[in-house]
């Protein structure tokens, strides 16, 4: 059994893995000048995407609490003078919200240098893959568990009772409550009983990430109840 304590917990970390792997259309001739142009375009787009990580991180919120990933490929059609003729989703992530954010982010890339002379192409199509990834580790999962529990604590305030209870409970991998008990009493049986009911009513909790071993998990959480001002 894995044991966790909620005396302190880390903030959820959202990461955006960004790639700018560019592919020219088949009409363009391969030449040293064109290869140099593509390297410059790759660098320009990669810089812009790295500066856009906060915006991309917001999009990852829509991926949900489970560890998951998605990939959107945006196509850029570049005119001979370097201006962007069009932007479109070449390959969807399957999530419209992520595709929209990816398209908006890539749309912020400005004009490119003109295409090299003698390239044999009136336009150049660039494919820009953007990888969204949300890896949920033990720290992030613990925070998801405690936030889920605290969202069910509002009824405690209606009892007009103050006190601190340390409650222990165990969960299955699927988030079902297997057991619960008072680790440290508030000194008020009514409040203790209310906290135990709260834990039962809060199930099911977020499921355990696939990379965390074990079939059941033990948790301990302090619940502070103030009749005038809740701390959560």
Automatic annotation (TrEMBL):
The TonB C-terminal domain covers 137-232
Report the protein name in the record. Answer: TonB C-terminal domain-containing protein
Question: Entry's NCBIfam families?
Answer: tonB_Cterm (TIGR01352)
Which is an annotated GO molecular function term of this record? energy transducer activity
Cellular component GO terms held in the UniProt record = plasma membrane protein complex
Localization, UniProt? Cell inner membrane
Membrane topology, as annotated = Single-pass membrane protein
Primary subcellular site in the record, as a coarse category:
membrane
User: Which GO biological process categories is it annotated with?
Assistant: protein transport; transmembrane transport
Family named by the database record:
Belongs to the TonB family.
- PANTHER family from the xrefs? PROTEIN TONB, PROTEIN TONB-RELATED
What are the alphabetically sorted keywords of the record? Cell inner membrane, Cell membrane, Membrane, Protein transport, Transmembrane, Transmembrane helix, Transport
Q: Which domain of life is it from?
A: Bacteria
């Amino acid at each position: 059994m894995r044991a966790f304590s909620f005396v302190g917990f880390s903030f959820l970390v959202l990461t955006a893995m960004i790639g700018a792997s560019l592919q020219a259309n088949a009409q363009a001739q391969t030449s040293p000048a064109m290869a140099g142009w593509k390297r410059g375009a790759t660098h320009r787009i990669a810089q812009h995407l790295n500066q856009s990580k906060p915006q991309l991180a917001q999009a990852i919120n829509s991926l949900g609490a489970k560890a998951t990933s998605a990939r959107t490929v945006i196509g850029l059609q570049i005119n001979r003078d370097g201006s962007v003729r069009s932007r479109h989703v070449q390959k969807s992530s399957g999530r419209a919200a992520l595709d929209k954010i990816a398209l908006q982010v890539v749309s912020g890339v400005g004009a490119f240098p003109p295409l090299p002379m003698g390239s044999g192409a009136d336009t150049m199509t660039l494919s820009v893959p953007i990888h969204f990834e949300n890896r949920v580790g033990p720290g992030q999962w613990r925070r998801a568990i405690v936030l889920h529990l605290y969202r069910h604590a509002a009824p405690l305030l209606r009892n007009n009772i103050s006190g601190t209870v340390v409650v222990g409970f165990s969960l299955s991998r699927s988030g079902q409550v297997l057991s619960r008990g008072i680790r440290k009493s508030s000194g008020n049986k009514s409040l203790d009983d209310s906290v135990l009911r709260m834990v039962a009513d809060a199930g099911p909790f977020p499921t355990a990430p696939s990379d965390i071993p074990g079939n059941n998990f033990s948790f301990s959480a302090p619940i502070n109840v103030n009749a005038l001002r809740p701390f959560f």
